[in-house]
Write the structure tokens for this entry.
Amino acid sequence: MKSNYLVTSLLVLITALIFSSCTTQDMNRNDDMDIELTGKDNGTSVSLKNGATITIRLEGNITTGYAWDIKEIDENFFKQIGDIEYVKKESMDSNTDENSPVGASGEFVFTFSAIQSGETTLQLQYHRSFEEGVEPLEVFTVSFVISD
């Protein structure tokens, strides 16, 4: 009877150790060198390593005149890599742009590199750049803690 209890306890302990090691890896995933954020990450805080690459993908529809662009960035902490890209969502029937419906939405893609340790905030805005004095339709804000 005691041996069954001992074996069961040992199995429970081993299982708990296995699951706890998996949880630790998931919690530290923001320390990876490549991080991808979406609109669901708006208002969050992200920890990352200096030198990490951050890709932000935000849904939008450029055919409406609205576009995502940078509202606030501290260039002491981030360097933009390349230009902002607009990628049309692919048609449900095909992977070619030729079959995408006219006026279909897409994604704006920003890529940055963390270049200095510290804390900073990045803001992107979805607005019509030609409409002066008008509040943006949406603002995307993420706080970053960058470590060596």
Notes: Residues 37 and 56 are 5 Å apart (CA to CA).
